[in-house]
Design goal:
single chain, 434 Repressor (Amino-terminal Domain), 6 helices
């Protein structure tokens, strides 16, 4: 994972394509069958695996065809805490407030 940090976007696309190819091969699926099951052309599949100009839709169709949608959770995990919900939560006061005008006159 650390090695990915210093790669260019193009190099990352190639690395992703290689990993997707390994997923397909680990499921003993050829390109033609996978492309047909995904509803994409073989050329689109080859481009995806080569890291060349693919769309998010092609990636999602590929993952769905190979029953590998857990890859989406790894790419973009659900946030456990919503920052907006944190702003909306009511916090209990930490100390008591005196009502205005309750001070007795003459005491400081």
């Amino acid at each position: 994972m650390n090695g990915l940090l210093f790669k260019t976007p193009g190099e990352l696309q190639i690395a992703l394509g290689e990993r997707l190819r390994r997923i397909r091969l680990s499921r003993n699926a050829d390109q033609a069958t996978t492309a047909a099951k995904a509803g994409i052309s073989e050329r689109a599949l080859r481009n995806l695996e080569a890291g060349r100009g693919s769309t998010v839709e092609t990636l999602v169709r590929f993952l769905k065809a190979l029953d590998a949608l857990n890859g989406i959770d790894l790419l973009a995990p659900q946030p456990l805490v919503s920052p907006m919900m944190l702003l909306r939560t009511h916090t209990e006061p930490q100390r008591m407030r005196r009502p205005r005008g309750s001070r007795e006159q003459g005491t400081a």
